[in-house]
């Protein structure tokens, strides 16, 4: 098992090479110069990266800015406005993003002279176009919940954009950098339509598209107009999806790939044993089963509580992760200032069976479909839940496989009973709001509870950690009582590389920065 004491690094080491962990925005053993290639970055060469899914489109609105949703593609093509290494905002294409009124309005200032890869300027109007587009209900945007917090925007000058919020969001920068708002595409290219844009996506990132064979490989080449020269260090990237975790690990181990975006605790454990560099982001929250409260069977609280009481999380960890994961017992880790020992769920087989029997007596025996992505972990999670519930009566579970790229559509169709999602974070704001607030488009469970919503609003605007802690204690109590989700394990937003790879850097929610990668030949 990965020794937990080795997952944390000092802020100094964190700033050196990684961005996403115990240091707030970046952490992991790959940040240690003794792990992986050491010395000065080497220019040139090709980086072969394995991802956890294939993008359905290169439109930034359709890309998710997290480790499991091809964030590396967005970073490669569009660059970043900002990142968050060492637990604080670090600006890249943006020079600043400030509020003078506790989050009621913000002013974004861009670096002067930014250019898209086709040589056209990237200014405040381009950011306004992209952000307005994301919050437009007509746009199929993964990050609409984050963008919809904006009420209006106006360009002040060529490099300055002012936004007014629907309600104050003091930590809105976190919503920007953990969503596709962080990526700005050419408005001219986007106006040409989806097919034309996918063939020639124009951004200002470190790489440009050379070719893309769907369900096969994407080839990228260095962007000579990238603002942060001499980065990127590599001349070329080849990206392929590897859904099977065993294949993903073995490909890196045997030299068939240089880097793998990773989600598997088992693979991280194997990499630790083999001495491969890894980056892991310790976070609060984690992976959960979202229970759709909008329709039967989980519109009945007894069905949700029965499922939560039936699942043995320790048995789940052994079956799915060979005991290598960290279970989620509380919403916040013990290192968080908002930690409370309020358990999110307690295994109680007798209570679970009693609730299942009550439902059956009312003519509603629990029967549902578990929608799962076809990754190794995804299938293992669904199959273990199905197996655990098979030891109870008056419950049946069917598994339906769906593609990772279909997950975004479920935010609008809500056509599921149970699906795996996540809420993991360094700072809980605004991640918990977008996941659990009744008005949020990203609230997969659909639960709309006034007390829960009030706790989120109080935590958002609180001026002290003590006040926020009290609000989050109320949130945890409501989540435990109403059970819109069942937490399963801590997330493993991470990356694994060959020993000759340097610059393994992530930010936000496990978003790999390809411009930092270099290979010692």
What's the gist of this structure?
Helix content is about 30%, strand content about 20%. With about 525 residues, it is α+β, with helices and mostly antiparallel strands. Helix 13 (about 375-390) links the parallel strand 14 (about 365-370) and strand 15 (about 395-400).
Could you outline the blueprint of secondary structure elements for this entry?
Layout: H1 11-17, E1 46-51, H2 71-78, E2 82-83, E3 90-91, E4 94-98, E5 105-110, H3 124-135, H4 144-147, E6 150-157, E7 160-165, H5 172-177, H6 187-191, H7 194-199, E8 207-213, E9 217-222, E10 236-241, H8 245-253, E11 259-262, H9 265-274, E12 278-280, E13 284-291, H10 301-310, H11 313-321, H12 349-361, E14 366-372, H13 376-389, E15 395-401, H14 407-413, E16 418-425, H15 431-436, H16 450-461, H17 465-482, E17 485-489, E18 494-497, E19 501-502, E20 506-507, E21 511-512, E22 518-519
Helix pairs in contact: 8-9, 10-12, 11-13, 16-17
Write up what this structure looks like:
The chain is of the alpha+beta class. 30% of the residues lie in helices and 21% in strands. The chain is built from 17 helices and 22 strands. The protein has helices at residues 11-17, 71-78, 124-135, 144-147, 172-177, 187-191, 194-199, 245-253, 265-274, 301-310, 313-321, 349-361, 376-389, 407-413, 431-436, 450-461, 465-482, and strands spanning 46-51, 82-83, 90-91, 94-98, 105-110, 150-157, 160-165, 207-213, 217-222, 236-241, 259-262, 278-280, 284-291, 366-372, 395-401, 418-425, 485-489, 494-497, 501-502, 506-507, 511-512, 518-519. The chain has a seven-stranded mixed sheet, with helices on both faces. The protein has a five-stranded mixed sheet with strand order 15-14-16-13-17. It has a four-stranded antiparallel sheet with strand order 4-5-7-6, with helices on one face. β14 (366-372), α13 and β15 (395-401) form a beta-alpha-beta unit. The two termini are 31 Å apart.
